[in-house]
Design goal:
Layout lengths: L1 E5 L4 E3 L4 E10 L4 E3 L4 E6 L13 E4 L3 E8 L3 E9 L4 E10 L2 E8 L6 E9 L2 E9 L1
Parallel strand pairs: 1-3, 2-4, 3-5
Antiparallel strand pairs: 6-7, 7-10, 8-9, 8-11, 11-12
Length: 135
């Protein structure tokens, strides 16, 4: 995962290799080749740690769930990822295209790992990380 990925010169993905490039921007230039027996993906994935919750975002905890309130400046595709303390995705919630304005999502505690974890909120091309603990 990188902010910007640009290939330069000869790059060969050989048979049996499984390569995924993830970045904010990806440029594949002349000299790049993938063997038909290889697996290759390029994914646009915002990877800048934008910030934690700000004054326009509110986190509420109850005995049964976590609630996250935020405002979209414009209609955007929204996805929520829950990561364990090692960065592994343990829960993904695809909210799809949401309208501009105030939004709220709840995650039941039963769907969250015990101990420390991170909720990643992806709004369009921005990614926000929020640290939590579930005891």
């Amino acid at each position: 995962v990188s902010g910007q990925i640009t290939t330069n010169g000869t790059v060969n993905i050989n048979a049996g290799e499984n390569i995924t490039l993830k970045g904010d921007q990806i440029s594949i230039n002349e000299g790049f080749s993938v063997n038909p027996e290889a697996e290759f993906k390029a994914e646009i994935d915002p990877c800048v740690l934008s910030r934690t919750a700000s004054s326009s975002e509110q986190i509420n905890e109850s005995e049964n769930d976590f609630s996250f309130e935020y405002t979209l400046e414009k209609a955007s595709t929204v996805q929520i990822e829950v990561l364990d303390h090692q960065g592994n995705k343990v829960h993904i919630l695809e909210l799809g295209e949401l309208p501009e304005g105030k939004q709220v999502f709840d995650i039941p505690r039963q769907h969250l790992p015990k101990g420390a974890f991170i909720i990643t909120v992806i709004m369009g091309n921005k990614r926000h990380f929020i640290n939590f603990s579930n005891s």
